[in-house]
Amino acid sequence: MKFSIILAVDDENGIWKHDTLAWNLPSDMKYFKKITTQTQDLAKMNAVIMWRKTWFSIPAKYRPLPERINCILTRDLKQSDIWSNIDDFTLYFNSLDDCFAELDSKENVENIFVIGWADIYNQVLNHPMLDKIYMTKVKWDFNCDVKLDTIPSSFSVEYYTDWEIENNIEYSFWVYKRVD
Fold it and tell me: In percent, how much of the chain has pLDDT > 90?
């Protein structure tokens, strides 16, 4: 079972600042939605895996992320008072391995994306089943306090877009593919 990660980083591999994105790029949000919802087989869905902290960083009115199976990793599955807006497409797991095993057993899952926090990105960067890295590069150092580790040398650039400007911020979409 292969999976991808999708994220945005600044010039210093910064991801978050004070528990939120340090920039406002609606085009990046649209790109994220397109990549994580689009499937080749219309009978299938994609899954997104995130830590509980990422789940709660999403405004309540947008949870769960629509048109995707939402997988939330948490150490405390019993704390039911914190879980709201639960539906059949929201799953909870104690470990990433349990989540991967469950998704691998489902015939209706086409693509799996890890999203969210540096902890989870950095945990899976060297995972042998990580196939692609979808990265929005943001030109600037936003002095983020949460950073992505270096992309492993087993990945090379598959493609990238021209630099664009939105809200006075330059950005470009990049895709890295495992080559080994």
Answer: 73
